[in-house]
């Protein structure tokens, strides 16, 4: 993909946006599931606090790491920030939609 290929940039941004939304949903699901397991030990048995803490921290850390790699402008490669529905890259001005 060339840096000035507007359709290619928009298509790649949609892919990255979709992956980002799926990753956020998956991380949130795991964290909430572990919270339910903590509150309802009768579901899977008693688990130690350390294990439950790790089961929540690991998906959050993985999500942050994944976001650092995935959530970049397809044109310039700079981090896109916190707005998942942005339409223009703040760094290079590429149209993302």
Overview of the structural elements:
With about 100 residues, the protein is mostly helical. It has helices at about 5-40, 50-70. It is elongated, with a radius of gyration of 18 Å. The model has no long low-confidence stretch (mean pLDDT about 90).
The CA-CA distance between the termini, in Å, is 16 Å
The best one-word shape is elongated
Sheet bearing the most strands, described?
Answer: none
Secondary-structure element pattern, one letter each? HH
SS-based structural class? mainly alpha
Spell out the blueprint of helices and strands.
Elements: H1 6-39, H2 49-70
Quickly list its features:
97 residues; mainly alpha; 2 helices
In short:
By secondary structure, this protein is an all-alpha fold. It has helices spanning about 5-40, 50-70. The mean pLDDT is about 90.
């Amino acid at each position: 993909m060339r840096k000035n290929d507007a359709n290619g940039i928009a298509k790649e941004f949609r892919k990255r946006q979709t992956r980002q939304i799926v990753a956020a949903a998956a991380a949130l699901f795991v964290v909430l599931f572990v919270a339910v397991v903590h509150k309802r030990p009768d579901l899977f048995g008693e688990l130690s606090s350390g294990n439950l803490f790790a089961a929540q921290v690991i998906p959050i850390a993985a999500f942050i790491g994944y976001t650092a790699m995935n959530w970049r402008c397809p044109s310039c490669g700079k981090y896109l920030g916190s707005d998942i529905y942005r339409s223009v890259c703040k760094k290079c001005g590429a149209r993302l939609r």
